[in-house]
Write a structure and sequence with these properties.
Layout lengths: L9 H11 L5 E4 L2 H4 L3 H13 L3 E4 L10 H34 L11 E4 L4 E4 L1 H15 L6
Parallel strand pairs: 1-2
Antiparallel strand pairs: 3-4
């Protein structure tokens, strides 16, 4: 799941509940941005972990003493960069989707009866599946339905 909003990460929320219930002493993540990419969420859930004496261990980052002022500053800088990254990525992705749509290009999986030309990003009729589409439309015009 995306680390953008922790409230929508069901298993993350289950982990937090386990921490509050006293069942977890440490959470191990690859990097801090795998824990959260939101400064607000990071501070909120790190606070819960601290309250319940649960440590956050980041295996691919140097140890940061989050109790010291410089350690807190370092964490906030790391989390600010992570939050910037995810927000900028979303903006750039949306810009690309909008460009494709404005230029008649397809943005998702091709619907049944079509293939997506990877070079032009335009839909092309799939000869084999088109037979099935034509058959379904003919049956519909004759009054058949799915029921």
């Amino acid at each position: 799941m995306s680390g953008r909003e922790a409230e929508h990460r069901i298993q993350f929320q289950e982990m937090i509940q386990d921490i509050e219930d006293g069942g977890i002493d440490a959470v191990i993540v690859y990097t801090r941005d795998r824990f959260s990419r939101s400064i607000k969420d990071f501070l909120k859930y790190l606070g819960i972990m601290e309250k319940h004496k649960c440590e956050l261990i980041c295996v691919n980052e140097s140890y940061i003493d989050s109790d010291s002022p410089s350690g807190k500053l370092s964490e906030w800088i790391i989390m600010s960069i992570a939050q910037y990254y995810v927000e900028n990525l979303a903006r750039e992705s949306l810009r690309g989707l909008k460009y494709n749509a404005e230029n008649g290009m397809w943005n998702t999986i091709a619907p049944f009866g079509y293939t997506l030309n990877r070079d032009t990003k335009k839909l092309e009729i799939d000869a084999y599946e088109a037979k099935g589409v034509r058959f379904m439309f003919e049956r519909f015009l004759l009054g058949d339905s799915q029921r």
